[in-house]
Amino acid sequence: MQIKKEEVRLNILEIATDEFLNRGYENVSMRRIASRAHPAQGNIYHYFHSKEILLEEILLPTIENIECMMSKHIEHEKANPLTKKQAWGKLKELEENFDSSEFSCFFDKRVVIFLRLESSHLLDRKEKILQSLTEHLQEYFNINDDAHYSEIVLNMLVECVKHVLIEHKNMDDAKAEFVKFFSLLFNGIISQIR
Prior knowledge:
The protein is mainly α. It contains nine helices and no strands.
């Protein structure tokens, strides 16, 4: 009997992830998730007491992974700033082996759900991550941000990640498309490294 309960729970998580991805967290009700998962609506609350708790179950592992990766990356880059030549090398490594790069943690459809959030207590974490990335871009690429270039660059990256993850069902195609865009964008930015 325990296995059945876990199967139902995992089914609810899978359906909620799909619904949040395709419709947005704010546009999905627990009733809709329950009807797609086929348990009685009251039964879904046995597994998840609220839509916010369901969202946390889906997103927290991804958020924590991103926060951990960013913390390590930023700390490492501050201690060991890249030269222009090293930056070109990193870009080449990314093109050749995306899956072992730091960027791979962003390549998860749950990231799209997170980036699209408009109302949730997780918004604070979203804003902190985006602010940290913006500041890292400013520092790392020596961007004088009077014109808000780092925000523009970050917004382009965010939109690219959302686009390729939504438009490409095949993850290899999505990664190839992202790497193409990333290479194009950062060829110009790398030239700003001293």
